[in-house]
Amino acid sequence: MEEPPPSSMRSLQLQDREGKESADSGIGDVDDLPVPQQIQISNISCDSFKISWDMDSRGQEKITHYFIDLNKKENKKENMFKHKDLPTKLVAKAVPLPMTVRGHWFLSPRTEYTVAVQTAAKQRDGDYSISQWSEIAEFCTADYSSVHLIQLLHKAEAIAGRMLPFTVFYRDQQREYFQQASPSYRSRDAQCCRMLLAVKDDSGSNGSPISGKLEGIFFSCNTEFNTGDLPQDSPYGPYRFQINADFLFNHNTNIYFGDFYCMYMSYHYVILVLAPDSSKGDVFCKGRLPELDRSNNCFLTCTRKDDGSLVFHHAQDVILEVIYTEPVDLSLGTVSRISGHQLMSLSTVNAKKDPSCKTCNISVGR
């Protein structure tokens, strides 16, 4: 382990299990060392946290290292047929507390972890004397910060491609969604006149602050690059609601960047949020998501012509998923059957991001 930087808040860089020092090698019997108590976790980000604890003064002068056992908190049912992961022992030289644990290649955003600590004294022969383990503490890493989302935005901008014109937003669903109230479709009202808001699912980047929190309605706007027509295949259903673009996107609508991801395929998705000014969704997005210039960005634009009419364009080389944050009345558009296939394999419902893709991942994990 490298020497921690000489500051009051030292950083502990996470090491491979086969690093220079391993907490599993050369461990002696439990010595008369203080046991960490009252583990305190603070300053949690998507890829770091600060840790401190209390301990008796007796034997503190012997401590040379801390051993930290950091593990993902897994669902036991999910792991019942898997080999139990070896615990991840992190070794840090004894430094003033609290200290920062940071490691983007290990810590993932929005992930629950358990942590326990031992104090240790390194002997002349290289072995360690150790204390008993502390009690286990639990914590969950945070969402991407605005800084991380800006990094993701810049990666998305790099591949967005040229802009193509479009005139309508559309939403594909099963026939029943548009025809009757059903317990299967809680995003419809009882009178079947409005599409209601639903909480954003867990698709996309693990650290996106909109997943499981933002309420809205998903729409698409992509067109076929060679014809300008709407695609006739859909993963979500053979019936399509179409609405003129200016009903959802105009100069009273704010636009935000929400996510950039892929699903082990060559094409990439960008999630955008359209929120009417000062609406509940707009209030949620401000300060959490990067706001885009509605008339000048790489993904989705609304510009006004000299005659006052609005013109709309979308990026060619990414698939846009647009979340509108207010209910939408079906009377504002039309519903019709599309002629293509229902490609269920292309559904992004709860789809997980490819953590190995260099195009859409940043330095803080998926």
TrEMBL record:
Entry protein name: Fibronectin type-III domain-containing protein
Q: What GO cellular component term, any one, is given?
A: cytoplasm
Family affiliation:
Belongs to the PHYHIP family.
List the Pfam families.
fn3, PHYHIP_C
Q: The organism sits in which domain of life?
A: Eukaryota
Q: What does this protein do?
A: May play a role in the development of the central system.
Enumerate the InterPro entries for this protein: FN3_dom (IPR003961), FN3_sf (IPR036116), Ig-like_fold (IPR013783), PHYHIP/PHYHIPL (IPR042868), PHYIP/PHIPL_C (IPR045545)
Q: Gene3D superfamilies annotated for this entry?
A: Immunoglobulins
Residue span, Fibronectin type-III domain = 35-144
- Region Disordered: start and end of each range? 1-33
The lineage, from the top, is: Eukaryota, Metazoa, Chordata, Craniata, Vertebrata
